[in-house]
Amino acid sequence: MRKKIVAGNWKMNMTPSQAVALCDELKDLVKNDEVDVVYCVPAIDIVPVAEAVKGTNVCVGAENMYFEEKGAYTGEISAEMLVDAGVKYVIIGHSERRDYFKEDDELLNKKVKKAFYAGLTPILCCGETLEQREMGVTMDWIRLQIKSDLVGVTADQVKEMVIAYEPIWAIGTGKTATTEQAEEVCKGIRDCIAEMYDAATAEAVRIQYGGSVNAGNAAELFAQPDIDGGLVGGASLKADFGKIVCYK
Length: 248
Known about the structure:
Low-confidence stretches: none
Strand order of the largest sheet: 1-2-3-4-5-6-7-8
CATH topology: TIM Barrel
Mean pLDDT: 96
Distance between the termini: 16 Å
CATH class: Alpha Beta
Order of helices and strands: EHEHEHEHHEHHHEHHEHEH
């Protein structure tokens, strides 16, 4: 059985002091030994959050990283810096990074491989626009993203990573893919991994759903055979995040 993983993506929210206060508020609410819990926080919050969650069941994740180890890359943060600060997970390829900051699959592939090299677990995001869904090319598009982003990544590495399916039309809109839509795509991703690698790798990789996940729909989504948890946006900044983690 794959262990569920619920990760909060704080995006560009929470000052360091606010971040520590939120960790304190959520501390007792997110206790669940059956679920891996991750706070993916802004870079400036990483150090105070890593300190605030010490001794708890929460791991710290980053929202982004660069693939070079060091050098003249003003404003960027390396994987090695993240590891030294106590980070365990890193989000790679979120639709907002792909769209607003024009990150392409060639760059994301370098980031995925660098994350593994440094000892970080990538949470690789994929997803379609509303236009692509209406055109009927959802799985074609997502398969292209997965295949491009995992070039040169080994089966053993894929078994340890997390893939997050986030339909772009459902992020922060209040719209959620139906349970059937979410399961269909997550199963499609697992089938794609089986084709690229083998059935054992596909069975091992954890696939999250993200896109307006909340306390009201988490249990139904997470009960699906191919949905192994959620990548949660706005709801991760509230006490209700505890209800998502403790969805049973």
